[in-house]
Amino acid sequence: MVPVPEVAGRVFGDGLGQAVQFAEMLERYGVQRGLIGPREVERLWDRHLLNSAVIGEQIGDGVRVIDVGSGAGFPGVPLAIARPDLDLVLVEPMARRADWLNEVAESIKLDVTVVRGRAEEKALRERVGAADVVTSRAVAPLARLAGWCLPLVREGGMMLAVKGASARDEVARDAKAVARVGGGAPTVSECGVGVLETPTTVVRVERVRSARRPRRAG
């Protein structure tokens, strides 16, 4: 079993037991079910669970959150464990991964809703409605991601995208594309500073208005 880092208790609080159960499920089944790579097992806590949970620093109390492209459960499952006050919906297009998310929720008694579908599809948007916050991690470049996620955000709400070292480059490159789909100026911040050895980089975009309609030719 992968050792549980001491900081996990600080991040997950009363949910530490659920976090340990989730880590054990991933360690046992994640590789064989194609959810994580073999090299990720030893990095489950720092690279995945803790990295995901700390984004809760940027989310208000008791709000509705939609996690787009949840996959193996990141960032949605650790976020739900660390922040049980949130009303959290996990959106995942692949059937086998949606099944996994339902198994996780049932096994660790996690109060989340799992919806199979693609964020870019109108039917999915109508089904899940709007949220105060839409989260994602390693789903798509920022311009495409904003086109998928911002329509799920209520006006005045925000999109939180967990990104890596390319975050600032993506913001510089894609800011105009984000504006076209109703987003404000993207900002880059870090979560877990002073808690994690490597803080989590997050791109935050507020939904300021509806998407611009393309101009008609002629």
From TrEMBL:
Its EC number is 2.1.1.-. It is found in: Cytoplasm. Gene3D superfamilies: Vaccinia Virus protein VP39. It comes from the Bacteria. Keywords: Cytoplasm, Methyltransferase, rRNA processing, S-adenosyl-L-methionine, Transferase. GO terms for molecular function: methyltransferase activity. S-adenosyl-L-methionine binds at residues 69, 74, 119-120, 137. Signal peptide: none annotated. GO terms for biological process: methylation. It is an enzyme of class 2 (transferase). Specifically methylates the N7 position of a guanine in 16S rRNA. Belongs to the methyltransferase superfamily. RNA methyltransferase RsmG family. PANTHER family: S-ADENOSYL-L-METHIONINE-DEPENDENT METHYLTRANSFERASES SUPERFAMILY PROTEIN. NCBIfam families: rsmG_gidB. This is Ribosomal RNA small subunit methyltransferase G. It comes from Amycolatopsis thermalba. The lineage of its organism: Bacteria, Bacillati, Actinomycetota, Actinomycetes, Pseudonocardiales.
